[in-house]
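hey so i finally got around to running both of the ones u sent me last week. sorry it took forever, my laptop kept dying halfway thru and i had to restart like 3 times lol. anyway pasting them below in the order u listed, first the sequence line then the structure token line for each. didnt double check formatting much so if smth looks off just lmk and ill redo it

first one:
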Amino acid sequence: MQNRSFVNEFVLLGISQNPDVQKVLFVLFLLVYLATVSGNLLIVVTIFNSPALVGSPMYFFLAFLSSIDVCVSSVVAPKIIVEFLSEKKTISFAGCMIQIFFFHLFAGVEVIVLTAMAFDRYVAICKPLHYTTIMNSRLCNILIGVAWAGGLVHSTIQNAFASQLPLCGPNIINHFMCDLYPLMKLSCANNDEFGPLVASSSGLFCILIFSILLVSYGVILFSIRGHSIEGQRKALSTCGSHIAVVILFFGPCTFEYARPPMVFSFDKMVEIFYSMLTPLLNPVIYTFRNKEVKNAISKFWNTSMANLCKK
């Protein structure tokens, strides 16, 4: 333990050192976080309170994705928001390791859930007669279990890398959160050993899954050529939402981890988009492009308002 690190806490430089800018960012980030949590929870509650949606594997995965988006955002956003009003922006070594663990845990789970959603759409469009047989509740629960197991393995590996970095000081992280590359910038050892490990465990994983998803959606779009116009429209609408979410998630993820261990000036903006804006945009994309979800939300809202008025 003594050979590993002499650093007990880190100073986070955050996004800006200007007090006036920090006040503006506090309001902006607070609104984004509240919108993210409320939007995603609205989708979860709506799906589980709608008989037409709750039994569908697609909406089962969508509800789970929304709950994971809340978790991903909650690992990062609350501390950033508090730090905008704090003079001393620090995080302990243990707190840093915990943040890395849970951020990569939920991100790893989301990667596998997005893959499961692509598989669900493939079965629904390419094998419609066997859809209910293949995508039964048992398989859906197995896929969710695989997602948690995969996320746990991924985050454990990342934490193992981070905890073994020899950090001899200084303890200033030019970032708003703890992550692998900012920590490697503080390492007093040769990062030629750790850099390829991070790139292979995170970056290669992102590229591989992203490529598989793009190929799978290509197969789906190719297979609907013989469908009716209405069938093509519905398939394109559903797949369009998934493809948009996949690109929003994997684009920043690939940039962040599928590269040499360097720190760029715009890394903070990419991380903000990846950890806060993508979870905010996901419910917007699925809601505005899906008539069933919009109708279910409208019905749930009207029912809730009617019940409140009766009370």
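and the second one:
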Amino acid sequence: MTMLLLDGGPVAPDAPVTRTGGVPLAPAGTAWPACAACAGPLQFLAQILLGDLPGTTAPSPGVLALFMCANRPGQCAQWSPTAGGNLALLLPAGDLEPVPAPDADQDLLGLGAVRAALPATTAPATGTVLGRLGGTPRWLQYDETPHCPTCARPMDFTAELTEGPDPVTAMNFGSGRAYAHTCTPCGRAALLWQC
């Protein structure tokens, strides 16, 4: 089953909901992640409550936090699930707090707008679809399902994101889509995009 992610409008930057933008929520002591390619701080894109996934029976099995490098667009291979220009963190649910931002250009750390992403089974007559949860990915190019670096199995498709309704503060997927995958047993996640 697939759920759509609908634009729910502005929401607080640290809201404990599925959203794009704002600041990541993580266990206390979590450091803001850095790009493995250029060492600059990553831009926070979105958090997805895995309890929103179709077919999830646990009240809140975790949170997926998605990041991408905005320091040198196009130079850190942000489209790749393994090059280090992006990062997906699979975090435990509960006792999460905002991750302190590093001393850096704040425009590079987060999106300018914070939007709730509400799960729904049907698209509205008006409004913006921000992506999808569950089901199968709608690849723009070819199947790039990543393999878990721990167990080597193909990861489960978790979410597909579009750039969003505001071109000034949109996630930069080259006018394409991002794909998030998880391996829940190993606690691993991956992010890539295609255009």
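quick thing i noticed on the 2nd:
The two ends are 25 Å apart (CA to CA).
anyway thats it, ttyl
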